[in-house]
Amino acid sequence: MEGSLSNVAPETKSVTRPTSSPKASKRLSDSITNFTVQCANCLKWRFIPTKEKYEQIRETIVEQPFVCKMAHEWRPEITCDVEPDLVKDDGSWRWAIDKPSIPKPPPGWQRILRLRAEGGTKFSDVYYVPPSSGKWLRTTREVERYLSEHPEYIGVTMSQFSFRTPVPSEKNYVRKRLARSSASPDTGEAAMPVAAIPISWIAPDQIEDLQFGEEGSSHVEAPAES
Fold first, then answer.
1. Mode of pairing for the β-strands spanning 199-204 and 93-98
2. 64: which of 24, 115, 145, 148 is 20 to 30 A away, CA to CA?
3. What SS3 class is residue 78?
4. What is the 3-state secondary structure (H, E, C) of 90-120?
5. Prediction pTM value
6. What is the tens place of the pLDDT at every residue in 124-176?
């Protein structure tokens, strides 16, 4: 999303419909087209101009809650008295709740989120794409293996990666299933509900793409991993 945020009209956004597999598209693109965060003071939703800025805010949202004056960097006139950039419950957007404190990807790396079709057993998948590489890494084990095979990534550690996925606000977007195990297959650790200061996404109701924001002090649980 580029230009003045005050000129953004959700119904005119150009979006990319999510695909079932990253191999279906050569572009390193998310299923996300806009990012929003809620002001901790006035509770109004504000668009964030870039994915990079959003990732920076998300990483420190617990220690440094977002407030409207932080948007002066890209929108000097914004204050808590200005009308919200959008209203969550106006029915024109589809929302999902992101997790706080997800680290920014290492320099040059991309963290890609791709949505699954509605009615599946999982809402989305997270991939990491190394610099100058077309390889999509989708688990911590794949990242560990890649780093061990590429020692040139000096200073890159596993603490810079997170495969936590957002939670859709629509209760029936993800089909419920019986838990086969209480352990995560990727880490071997017991799967635990994650309390979150949500950072959501929003998207036009007629498409399946989403975007981000943060909502007050509510709590959500992470969807169970398969």
1. antiparallel
2. 115
3. coil
4. CCCEEEEEECCCCCCCCCCCEEEEEECCCCC
5. 0.68
6. 999 999 998 889 999 999 999 999 999 999 999 999 999 999 888 888 888 87
What letter would DSSP give residue 162? -
∠ CA 25-115-40, rounded to 5°: 125
How far is 189 from 204, CA to CA, in rounded Å? 37
Sign of CA dihedral 197, 202, 207, 209: negative
Q: Which two tokens stand for residue 133?
A: 């590489």
Q: What burial class does residue 151 get, using C-beta atoms within 10 Å of its C-beta: 0-12 exposed, 13-18 middle, 19+ buried?
A: exposed
Beta strand 124-129 pairing with 210-214: unpaired
- The two structure tokens encoding residue 110: 């991309």
Query: Residue 53: phi, psi to the nearest 5?
Result: -65, -40
Length of the chain equals 226
| Spatial separation of the C-alpha atoms in residues 118 and 220, rounded to whole Å | 19
Extract the tokens encoding 202: 């929003």
Distance between CA atoms of 74 and 6, rounded to whole angstroms? 11
